[in-house]
Amino acid sequence: MARKLLLEHINVPGINTFDVYRSKGGYAAVEKALKTLSPDDVVEEVKKSGLRGRGGAGFPTGMKWSFLAKPEGVERYLVCNADESEPGTFKDRYLMTYIPHLLIEGMIVASYALGAKTSYIYVRGEMMPQIRILEKAIAEAKNKGFLGKNILGSGYDLELYVQPGGGAYICGEETALLESLEGKRGNPRIKPPFPAIAGLYGCPTVVNNVESIAAVVPIINEGGDEYAKVGIGRSTGTKLISAGGNLRKPGVYEIDLGLPVEEFLYSDEYCGGIANGKRLKAVVAGGSSVPILPANLFLKTINNEPRLMSYESLADGGFVSGTMMGSGGFIAYDEDQCIVRNTWNFARFYHHESCGQCSPCREGTGWMEKVLHRLEYGHGKMSDMDLLVDVSKKIEGNTICPLGDAAAWPVASAIRHFRDEFEWHVTHPHEATTRNFGIAHYADPLPKLEEAAS
Amino acid sequence: MLSVQDTNTPVTFSPELISKFADVVSRYPAGKQKSALLPILHLVQAEFGWTSVPAMDKVAEYLSIQPIEVYEVASFYTMYFLKPQGKYMLEVCRTGPCEIVGATPIMEHIEKTLGVKEGDVTPDGLFSWRGVECLAACGFGPVLQIGPEYTFYENLTTESVDKLIGDLKAKGNN
């Protein structure tokens, strides 16, 4: 079994309390950083670790930190993005519920590295229980001298606050999150300027995902070089995967990046295979925004190499035959699931969550939802598939923030890989409303390579 | 599109509520009190069950901002109710991962059991329900949440929903 860097003590009774967390070596990273390292040293360790943003974009965290502007006399902020809303993703909820001090500890070390004296954890409003858990953990840490004035006698001061959101997927986008934290509608800002130059209240700001911040703890404890030894190539360290859908054992798993997807999906250590003895039809590997793949292309790349759970391997084949790591929101679909219905469901989600600022996204997501709805309910036309692809192409890349792309990719990829299923909905309108299109040739065992490529 | 429902019911904020507001405002730098808007609206909704226009006007006054700045926020975010709801608002996740493990049958069952359409309130004022987008609990679907505590109910079945509704009915307005 691989070593756990984040969830090693997750099953220890009382690990959500300061004392038990501390007895398991908790807050050692704060002591090490504040007593023996300079802020720049901490940034350097994170750079060496190769840690990439765990929220979805996969941008190197150390590099993001090094871009932070540091003008004299201007406040700097660290904001943790705990607005976890990407369909399929529930790892941050899990981490905050069961081991909240790991996030608090990471926030202290990261704030120290960035020179932030006030930091915020922006938690989606629906997670009120987690907000209460974090506030309790913050009070405990403050009581023990790990937050507040002159932490551990180092002269470093830090206040940490939890901010609830109001229920908007768009606030997971970092500039929308900052707008929301300023008490406004979550409309993403035009970049540049990037938050590293002008973020919260116009001040230099870093926004990092919960898991990225938590990963700073093992990086400081073990050293960036040691952390970088875990994983494969440029995908270093461990990753939390939220496994859901038709799986025997859904849940949050910490994996070494580079684990073969087949092992992740079928071994009893992880997902334990497909529920109810059914076969795998399709997988969304990294949250609803990433391209959906049929089982055969998911398990093996177009070059017939086993696919791995790493940023590079999941993206192998680009958008033609690959997908993305995204936020690690892993959704498995069994042979009975309807891809048209699922695509319509996701399109409705993006239409609902579009902030309405950019016309291509505001209008395009609505039309995609409408067209997919009529396909699913037996009123579709053969021309609808090309129409959908056309609309998706007109959204993609033409919006301020990536929500447009995120709305376009699931539709485009579903049509790319499952066009015959969409066509079946047009040619069998009555059946389409009464039963799903269970189509065996997408499911494993693997089809011939030529079929997959066509 | 959401619209803001007007009402003339006067609203008073208790000293306890005002002190909670002040605690929130203290988290931000001087002059950035508008940052407290979202948390304060949650406090208002927990107290009154929804965010009415008079309540929002008072929030605007408290934060020294224009009422429109409060309305535009309350109507943008899905968690704020712009009209009265049942005491127990059952919010069922309807997005992909919950859908493929049976969110729609759960919503149909709730509609049948409560006898009201999505967004409507039962005659006794106890219940309303609606489908909401992903609640980040995809491994434990279908799920629903009930404010203002946002307690979570996971791995729902029609039986567990019946039990939940029965328990809440027994609890009634207490």
UniProtKB/TrEMBL annotation, chain A:
Recorded catalytic activity of this chain's protein: a quinone + NADH + 5 H(+)(in) = a quinol + NAD(+) + 4 H(+)(out)
Record SMART domains: NADH_4Fe-4S
Cofactor annotation: FMN; [4Fe-4S] cluster
EC number: 7.1.1.-
Record Pfam families: Complex1_51K, NADH_4Fe-4S
Domain NADH-ubiquinone oxidoreductase 51kDa subunit iron-sulphur binding: 340-385
Keyword vocabulary terms for this entry: 4Fe-4S, Flavoprotein, FMN, Iron, Iron-sulfur, Metal-binding, NAD, Oxidoreductase, Quinone, Translocase
GO molecular function, one term: oxidoreductase activity
Transmembrane stretches, start-end: none
InterPro entries: NADH-UbQ_OxRdtase_51kDa_CS, NADH-UbQ_OxRdtase_suF, Nuo51_FMN-bd, Nuo51_FMN-bd_sf, Nuop51_4Fe4S-bd, Nuop51_4Fe4S-bd_sf
PANTHER family cross-referenced by the UniProt entry: NADH-QUINONE OXIDOREDUCTASE SUBUNIT F
Function: NDH-1 shuttles electrons from NADH, via FMN and iron-sulfur (Fe-S) centers, to quinones in the respiratory chain.
Family from the record: Belongs to the complex I 51 kDa subunit family.
Protein's recorded name: NADH-quinone oxidoreductase subunit F
Organism: Mucilaginibacter aquariorum
Name of the encoding gene: nuoF
Automatic annotation (TrEMBL), chain B:
Superkingdom of origin organism: Bacteria
Cofactor names: [2Fe-2S] cluster
Record's keyword terms, sorted: 2Fe-2S, Iron, Iron-sulfur, Metal-binding
Keyword Metal-binding: yes
NCBIfam families for this protein: nuoE_fam
Family of the protein in this entry: Belongs to the complex I 24 kDa subunit family.
Name this polypeptide is given: NAD(P)H-dependent oxidoreductase subunit E
Top-level taxonomy: Bacteria, Pseudomonadati, Bacteroidota, Sphingobacteriia, Sphingobacteriales
